[in-house]
Amino acid sequence: MPLVFAAITPHPPVLIPEIGKDNLVKLKKTEEAFKKLEQELYAAKPESLVLISPHGKVSPEYFNINLNPDYAANFKEFGDFSLELKFRSDFMTIQEIRASDESNQAAPMVMISEPEIDHGFAVPLYFLTKHLKNLPIVPITYSGLNYQKHFEFGQFLYRQLAKLNKRIAVIASGDLAHTLTKDAPAGYSAQGKEFDKKVVDLIKAKNFNGLLVLDSGLIKEAAECGLRSIIILAGMTESLNIKPEVLSYEGPFGVGYLICNFRLV
């Protein structure tokens, strides 16, 4: 079994102590869930960590895989000029994925080389690699393609990773609705809460097909950024015996933050 760990996480920069400061008390559930998830990841003894982010360079037609040898991350755009994180690439795994489909017939993907990774990667890494400082990573950015293509890309990734003799963890980074309160980043919509509830319920029920056919109007009203990341993860785990365990959900700043461990059983 190539996957030894799989989870969904949010990526709120406000959760970083240097940024959030007094606001951290409002994210206690998320903070505690990240701590628990970090322990689960450490116990899984991964040799590589695949991360899927909705930010950075999102191509309308291709999934991007960053094969730079090393990566740096900072939070300057969020007001913190002191914190800088360093990570190294799992270059060999990326090359295996690349070589498996150079014609792009099975999966429309392109290789990019960027020395910096965005907060969609950096926030989960900040919390989850505290005791895995040298864990190599595979940063993937989702695309503008439809949800079925994202599910199929997840299936493709699993098939390729299954060929490797390596313990692999995967994180789907993404926030849910950005419209939960009147001061939310995308404004208020009553359908934001409806979207989040549906997504969480579908994940709990392992109803991944339900994620693919969510009402487009509901998705638009939610102004989410995590659904495609979650669907890729769903494709990667659909053939496995998993038990989704929701560790936390909250949205005190108008954005839905979900942490869910896809426990492998």
From TrEMBL:
Domain Extradiol ring-cleavage dioxygenase class III enzyme subunit B: 6-258
Molecular-function annotations in GO: ferrous iron binding; oxidoreductase activity, acting on single donors with incorporation of molecular oxygen, incorporation of two atoms of oxygen
Matching InterPro entries: Xdiol_dOase_suB
Source organism, top-level taxon: Bacteria
Xref: NCBIfam families: AmmeMemoSam_B
Protein name: AmmeMemoRadiSam system protein B
Lineage: Bacteria, Candidatus Buchananiibacteriota
